[in-house]
Fold this sequence. Notes:
By secondary structure, the chain is an alpha+beta fold. It is elongated, with a radius of gyration of 35 Å. The protein has helices at residues 4-12, 18-25, 29-41, 55-63, 81-90, 96-110, 117-131, 190-204, 233-241, 258-269, 272-276, 283-299, 309-317, 404-407, 412-420, 424-434, 444-451, 459-471, 477-491, 498-505, 518-537; strands spanning 144-157, 164-174, 179-185, 210-213, 220-222, 230-231, 245-248, 332-337, 343-346, 349-352, 361-366, 370-375, 380-385, 393-394. The chain has a 5-stranded mixed β-sheet, with helices on both faces. A hairpin with a 4-residue loop joins strand 2 (164-174) and strand 3. The protein folds into 5 domains: 4-63; 81-131, no CATH class; 144-317, Ribonuclease H-like superfamily/Ribonuclease H (Nucleotidyltransferase, domain 5), CATH 3.30.420; 332-403, CATH 2.40.50; 410-505, no CATH class. The protein has 21 helices and 14 strands.
Amino acid sequence: MLDYKDILNKHFVLRLSAREISRQTGVSKSGILKFLQAFEKCEDLDYPLPPGITNAGIAMKVYGKVPGEGGRDESYEYPDYQKVLKLMNERKNMTLQVCWDRYSKRCAAEGKKGYQYRQFCELYSKWCEENYETAHFTAVIAQTMEVDFAGKTFDLIDRLTGEITPIVVFVSILPYSQYIYAEGMSSTKEAQWIEVNNNALKAFGGVPAIVVCDNCKQAVIANKDWIQPELNKDYAEWAEHNHTIILPAKVRRPRFKSSVENAVGILEKGFFHDLEERRYFTLEQFNEDLWEKLDGLNDAPFKKKEHCRSYYWAEEKAELMPLPSTQYHYMERSTAKVSSDFHVRFDNAYYSVDKAYLHKKVVIRASQTQVRIFSLEGDLIAEWPRAHHRGEWKTNPDHLPKNYKDFSEWNSTYFIRKASTVGPHTTELIKRILKSRKLEVQTYRLCIGVLGFTKKYSRTSLEECCRRALAAERATYTYIKNTIGAVAEELGSSGYNTDKNKKRNEGAYIMDSSYSDMNKLLDRSRALADQSGKEALR
C-alpha cells in the first residue's frame, strides 16, 4: 500500500510536483498522478485530512477498498499480530525473531503451514499499517540498522584540473535510539559500499540483528517477490561475517525503512545547506565537517521527548552484538582457465594451482592481501599472498607433476622445436630463457611471447633481433619486445609477416625503406632545388 498521507502532505503542504514526490518516495510518477486525481474526485474526503485516519482509511474513501485485501493464502496459519505487538511494546528485549520462532514451533506442533521469517515480518508491517496510524516495525533496542543514500550530492573539486566529482552521502541509523551515522563517498562501487557499512558498525559500536537496506545494486541483485531477494554476493557474505541478516525494503515502499528516510530528510533540511556553501578539495575534509555536524545533531535534545540520540544510543550500544575480531574485506571476483603451465593469471601476476585442474575454469577471489582460488563447485584449491609486482609468479612445486616437462603440451622440447623453425639465434635465446628461472614452467609464457612475434613480424626480423640480444647479453622477452619493431623497419617489407599483411597491402605501393632515409631525402631535395633553379634561368 502506498503512503497516501505522505504523498498528500508533500503535495499540499510542501507544494512538490508529482515528479519530485516520485523521486523522494520511489513511487512512479504516473501512480502518484492517478492517486491525486482520484483524491480530487473523492467527495467524502478533503485536505486537511481528518484526525486519526490511516492509509487504509484513505484507500477505502478514495477507491472503496484496501489494495491487496483478500489476497492472503488461507492455507497458512495467520499469526496473532495483536499479541505480537503487545509483546514488542511490553518486553524490552522482545524481537520479531523470537515471536516468529514461537509462531513456527506452534505451527509445527499443530501440523499447520507457517510463514517464513521475512514474510512474517512483511505481514506484520502490513497489519500495523492497516490497523494503526503509524505503520512501521516497532523500534526494538539493538534489533535493526537501516541504511540508504541521501538524494543530495556535493562537489569534490580537483585542485589541478578543476574537475568535479560528486560526493554521495551514505546514511545509516539505529531506529530505537535514532542515532545517525553518515559518510561521504567519492565512489559507490561494491568495495566502497562494504567499507562504509563496516564504518557504520564501528561507529555504532556493535552489530544489530537485522540490516534494512534499499534495493540499490550494491546490496541487491533482484527483489521481484521480496520474500526471497537475490543479494549481492559480497554484501551477503558481509552479513554472514558479522552474524546479521539483510532485509531489503520492498520495492517502492519507503516506509519499510522509514527511520533512515526520516534521517535523510533531517540532514537534507538541516546542516546540508551549510555544507553545500563550502568548497571541498578532499573527501577527508568533507567528512570531517560532516561528522562534526553529526556529533552536534546526535547530542542535541529531542523536541518531543526527553534526552538526545546519544543518550539512547549509549543504552542501545550495550545490547548490540559484538563486532567480529576482524572486518570483512571486499573481494574482487573473476574466472580464469588454468593454462598449460599450471598457473592462472590475475591482475598481471601468476598463481599456480594443482595439476588436477589443468585446462579447467576456476573462480578467483582476491582481497588486498590475499588471492584464493576455487573450483567451479566452490572448493578451495589454492591460497596465495597477493603479488605486489607485475609479472610476479607464485608457484608451489607440489602443484606440478613430477614429470611436468613432459606432462603437458608446453615444455622445453616443444618451444625449442618451434624456435628451430625460425633460426639458430632464436633457438639459443629460447634455451636461455628456459633456464632463466628457478622453475622452467615459469618461463613458458615468455617463450610463447617471443615466438608469438612471428604473427606480425617476419622470421627474419625475429632471428636478427635474437642475434642482437645474444650479442648484447640481453636474452630476454622484454628486449625482443622493445627492439623487434626497429629491426623490422630496417629490413623494410621483408621485416614483416607478408602473409598476414598481404590482403591489407593488396593494391598498395610498398615504398622501399631506403626512400625514408633522411640523408637520401635531403639529397633528393637539393637535386630538385638545383633543377628548378636551372629551369628558371633559361
